[in-house]
Give the backbone structure.
Amino acid sequence: MSWLSGFNGPQTLGSGLGFWSSFAAAVVLLAAAPWLVESYLVNNLAYFLLWTFMALGLSVIWGHAGILSFGQTAFFGLAGYSYGVISINLGDANGLTWVAFSGALLLTALFAALVAYFMFYGGVGNVFVGIVTLSITLVMETFMAQTAGPEWAIGSARLNGFNGMSNMPPLTMPGIVEGGLVLEGNALYWFVLALAVSVYLGLRRLVNSRFGNVLVAIRENPDRAEMLGYDVRLYQLAAFTLGGALAGVSGVLYTTWGSYITPSSMGLTAAALPIIWTAAGGRKDITTTFVATVFLLWLSQTLAVKGAQYALVLMGVILLLVVLLAPDGLVLLASRALARTAAELRRRRT
Amino acid sequence: MLATGIGFAYQFADSFAFLILSSIGLAVIFGMMGVINLAHGEFIMCGAYVTVLSARAGLPLPLAMVLGAAVAGAIGILIEFLVIRRLYSRLFDSIVATWAISVIATQGMLIVVGPSLEGLKTPFGSFELAGLTFSWYRILLPVVALAILASLYLLFVKTPFGVRARATIQKPEMARALGVNTDRVYSLTFGLGAALAGLTGALYAPTMTTVPTMGSAFIVQAFVTVVVGGTDVLLGAAPAATVLAFIQSLLTASNGQLIGQVGLLLTVIVVVRLMPKGISGWMLKGSE
Amino acid sequence: MTPNTLVHSLVAASVAVAASVAVSLSPALAADPVKIGLLEDQSGNFAIAVIPKIQATQLAIEEINAKGGILGRPVRLTHYDTQSDNTRFQEFARRLIQQDKVDVIFGAFSSASREAIRPIMDRAKQLYFYNNQYEGGVCDSNVFVTGAVPEQQFSTLIPWLMEKYGKKVYTIAADYNFGQISAEWVRNIVKKGGGSMVGEEFIPLSVSQFSQTIQNIQKAKPDVLITLLVGANQASFYEQQAAANLNIPMGSSVNVGQAYEHKRFKPPALKNMYVTANYIEEIESPASNDFKKRFRAKFPDAPYINQEAANAYNVVYLYKAAAEKAKSTDMKAVRKALESGDICTDGPSGKVCIDPKSHHQSHTIYLVKVNADHSVTIPKVWNDIKPYWLGEAGCDLSKKDDTSQYTPSSPPKK
């Protein structure tokens, strides 16, 4: 029982029976989606879910540790390209794509740790972290965009510059079926869903643990945390590495979903998006970040489908209203509005 | 040899002007007020569009440029009143707000005015020196950039408004207690930043294509110059632009535009690492 | 925040999802239409060059429907605004294939967006037409290309310029696949024609200030400057070089014909600019004038009718011809019909045909000269230039399936 209580704590919202039973119901509903809705919607939902890892990573770095990083897309791109390079060279027999997956994540985590060491152990803080991480992701984009020639290849994988790298094999589970189960369609959806749920639960434990509490202490007052004996820079490095690795998970999943990765995934517009999702949703809590990311992705896509060239304007107006009217993020705004309506209805009935 | 030297000096002055002019508006709004203004590029675009439209309607170019800056400033005051004012207690949220404004502005411009405008001709023609031809106008730009920087410095250090503005930004309650109308100061300062961005757009309008997304050509340079400049932005902007422009020009001249661009960004990373409070922070360290 | 409010929000979220699902499952329309999917950027960076394409496709479909449709069935167009964003291309390609279940997809402007959706087309074996000029080399069973390719644009332009102005050539190109591969083509053709490359510069897409580039060009003293610049940032080069009085004849395969720079920059920024395009608005042939009349009747406010608009118009008629030859809209059958060798259409630039081996299209190439006042003359026209390179290099899709993109320095393995 006490192990279960690790999922609740001061850093996450929602802790009672009501929350957890709705959570379980939501997971069951989502898992059953392939039998409830058509395959396009399932695929689309998998697409929305794969971005949540990057947003959750940013929630850890920014929402919990208080470090604004503009560079999540650098790790996204690095992981995507690494997966592409490794999987094209190794092939997809016998589950070798998982070697590519783990290899990509390891590389990305290492790079994130390196960047973190460079910054935090060099005394770089606050807005300067944002600028350094932005510069890193832009350098990567600019550099990768010109790798079009055939000399830019790692093994048999051509980087292919601005046009992007494709032809990488999708993730394949060995066994299960003849030739291995290719993670496409419903299989990919369930994989992404299972991964999202596990990462979410894992992060819940992490941010509510001593580690998470120290991160928040550092966010609130780094000097005080230092004086209380915590190695601030080590905690920041750990948080940043974790956030970068999560961005890498999104990167690999995106690459395998679309069989494609491009330098513009690391550009300025792409770099701003995780910050928008996290900020609009309420960055300090991973549940609101998760829900807001999926919602905003769905909203911007629906607007693009229905609204033609007005889609972007409408998206901007909605975000503007959200940030002005909802200082705690739109998920909490929506919840409170619903709670008030429910309370009002209850009151009217009596 | 002489041609190379002159060529390099010209190129350096050009890069320097671009960095300074990209960043002055942002220096006031972000550097001084702390508002992370992702719509900075769109104020530049606004100034450019107003300049082009009014010049084509017959207004002489200098007046058209002043009008461009003025309209951008007025829109800045409006945005400060409607949006930014509510965010001073939560400056991180200005990211989302200004990003949203930027999207609305670029897309709105596309819908209302169309994907492109017929542009203006660069004034003043060209001259020849050491076998190369140069544009007079591009020599003018660094001069204007320095003049604007100097005026800003004088404004914020020597005039009563400037002193009040800096006091308000540093300690708003104290300033209010001393009788300063802080709302008006915020409004005017933000408007000034927007007007400066509009002026940048106006100055560069005769040299670039007028498209709704033209702000994106300035925004990265603006942010890196302001941040590398450091905590005292008026002091740091010129040294930051000097260092960055020098390295970028050197690399572009010897290895091409790609290395120049990448080199600029890498220089930013190195400088910030060596001087974690920016250049002005490093310069002021001794005086603390 | 109480547990209740979070419960309510999760419930509401589920309701919202269910509602949107219900809305998305809209009832099918009557009279089984032929469904064409369009993925084009109506907003974002590429909108300038792409909006005429959307309009041209809409015009063609309206005309075809007025005459009875394809195989007696009405044509229905589903267009999604991809916002010049590669991820939107991926999302909406999937939507067109899985939800709208279209019979054919047209679209994409930048090569990156085409490459983003080509894997999706290949995985679903979806018939797809790319209607834009590009760097060439796509040898893909599911893909047909109506845009012009380097052998059509450069093998005409470069020898003509070298003969008129001199053999020393300088290239400035956007630093990515299209620019690099096009520059490779220029290099090869210059060498074959006995000329020399006095300089080559590659410029990242984000650059908008060209002082150093202009100096470099002046120091090299070329006879001809080939400009392969892409995007609004890079287009600023033209005004800046005019302000510095560079005064060198310029040649391009990509400017003027797509984003009509000669109408957007003040004269004489594009003075002495030569472009090989497969169509432009200023062409005064009977076919072109008739096309312009119909186009402007439907879209009176259209700023310009560019070369890609002609492609986007022709492709609808080409698809119609193929579907009617195959007597069905089944994608395999239509593909077979397209590979028969006699699928052609008489469009704004004359007769154009699909080449069975490479899946690309023949073109009439016009040499467009921009004068000092930005008026346009057409000194030369090359008729029926075939897309010969891929077939000669070893790509024969009528005999062997493939899903690759090749370049001169990495051709198909023999």
User: Anything to note?
Assistant: The first helix of chain A runs from residue 17 to 31.
